[in-house]
Write a structure and sequence with these properties.
By secondary structure, the chain is of the alpha/beta class. It has helices at residues 14-24, 26-29, 37-61, 128-149, 154-205, 210-217, 282-287, 313-322, 338-352, 380-396, 407-412; strands at 2-3, 10-11, 221-226, 229-234, 249-251, 257-261, 264-265, 268-273, 292-300, 307-309, 326-332, 361-364, 401-405, 423-427, 441-448, 457-462.
Length: 463
């Protein structure tokens, strides 16, 4: 509690008012201090500023003139140095014949007549000089300190405090919200896991295979089985995905499939053949609605590595072209070096030269049924490099390159990102369209029936 020297009434300091507020309503007053250590620091800084303002107000209300200079009659100001004649300034240095502020009045008589505001020394040796000198010194320190800090008005301090409270509340709300979202996600995941386990239990109890059950349960991953273990591969959505749907597949009584969108059939009927089909009546094949034929041109022995022309290639190529069927060709490769790829493509170009090739020229990279082919054990990186090299050479020769594979070859034996520029021919014998990546030709059966061919034949849909 200080006294306002102008009004004579007690003046309550801001610090005391704040302490009273804390006692009257501690919960409200301390709410902001519970928000964060940073706000408590701000609050403490503002309290210091309030105390500083109280001290300065008290000093301004005193009868001290801190910056008064000496007058013409030689009276010394609050900070003026003493004169050579022995005048003493309050708290200021004097010569050896003068007394500093607070000393007994032994100096020039003008000090005895100094006005109360002059800063002179009390001739009776009263504490006036000492008090004024000390007050001036403290005032100087406050002035320097306030000058260093800069002017910081109360309104700005309150605005800063309010901003801090709001910021703290927002941070607290954000942390709370983030924590709540995390708990919700965890609950959803736990619920999803529980639901998934129940669905798998039900599926298996109904006699569904383990593979089918896992694939239905893990829809964001591709499930494979190899070497007596299940493999889970995340779907790479940076690759081009197909847009096929099971409900668009129509199965005819003949075993033939069609793919429709609305009422329009967008697929074309195709077959792929080799010497395994023997002699083929291509006129009957064309009459049965076949539009495309992809004929094996050659292969490399998977044990010997020897290049061999398919013995029925010329008959099949001539028969297809003469019957108005679009002709394509494929090579069963077993190349394990770039040089061997070059050998295959050179031989292929000679075989295709006499014919108009309107369909794709395909490299078949599936592994052998026995799993002991010379290409079966090379690493995926090298296999991918060789397949890509084959496609580039075919493209340079003026043909349309394509890659044939099944799901195991695609996911476990090749790097599909590196082969993204080339079209694919995919083999799968159901229409669940589990394999997600794009392809242009779909081999959907290896047991098809077509007029003009004895026995089974591979059936394809060309999109």
């Amino acid at each position: 509690m200080t006294e306002n020297t102008l009004t004579g009434r007690p003046q309550r300091s801001r610090a005391a008012s704040r302490a009273s507020q804390r006692r009257q309503d501690p919960d409200t007053f301390d709410a902001r201090t519970r928000l964060s250590p940073d706000l408590r620091a701000i609050d403490g800084g503002i309290s210091d500023l309030d105390m500083e303002d109280d001290a300065v107000s008290s000093m301004n209300n005193s009868n001290i003139s801190r910056y008064a200079s000496g007058d013409a009659s030689g009276n010394a100001g609050g900070y003026a140095p003493g004169s050579v004649s022995g005048n003493a300034a309050g708290g200021a240095p004097v010569n050896d014949s003068s007394a500093a502020g607070g000393a007994a009045g032994s100096g020039n008589a003008r000090n005895a007549n100094s006005s109360p505001n002059s800063g002179g020394v009390n001739p009776a040796g009263s504490p006036q000089g000492t008090e004024r000198g000390g007050s001036a010194s403290r005032g100087a320190k406050r002035s320097v300190r306030r000058g260093r800090m800069g002017y910081f008005p109360k309104e700005a301090a309150l605005a800063l405090l309010f901003a801090g409270i709001v910021l703290g509340a927002l941070v607290t709300f954000g942390v709370t919200k983030a924590g709540e979202e995390k708990r919700i996600r965890k609950a959803v995941e736990e619920r999803s896991d529980e639901t998934r386990m129940n669905q798998m239990r039900e599926s298996l109890s109904e006699g569904t295979s383990v593979m089918t059950t896992l694939r239905k349960a893990y829809t964001d991953e591709l499930v494979m089985y190899k070497d007596n273990k299940y493999i889970f591969l995340p779907i790479d959505r940076e690759l081009k995905l197909h847009d096929f749907h099971s409900e668009n597949v129509t199965e005819l009584s003949s075993g033939e499939w069609k793919y429709t969108e609305g009422k329009k059939v967008i697929s074309r009927k195709g077959i792929d053949v080799s010497s395994h089909q023997g002699d083929i009546d291509w006129k009957k094949v064309a009459s049965d609605g076949v539009e495309y034929a992809i004929v094996r041109a050659m292969y490399r022995g998977y044990g010997s590595g020897k290049l061999v022309e398919d013995e029925k290639f010329k008959d099949n190529a001539n028969g297809a072209v003469e019957s108005g069927i679009t002709l394509g060709a494929y090579v069963f490769t077993q190349a394990i070096t770039r040089k061997e790829v070059e050998e295959e493509v050179e031989m292929l170009k000679k075989l295709l030269e006499p014919y108009e090739i309107g369909g794709p020229v395909v490299v078949d990279v599936e592994k052998t049924a026995e799993g002991d082919g010379r290409m079966d054990n090379i690493d995926p990186k090298l296999r991918t490099e060789l397949v890509g090299y084959f496609c580039e050479l075919v493209k340079e020769a003026g043909y349309h390159p394509m890659i044939y594979f099944n799901i195991e070859t695609a996911l476990l034996m090749l790097d599909l990102k590196e082969l993204e520029p080339y079209e694919k021919w995919f083999a799968t014998y159901n229409h669940d369209f589990y394999y997600p990546y794009a392809y242009s030709v779909w081999q959907y059966s290896d047991k098809g029936r077509v007029d003009g061919i004895d026995g089974d034949v591979d059936l394809d849909l060309i999109f």
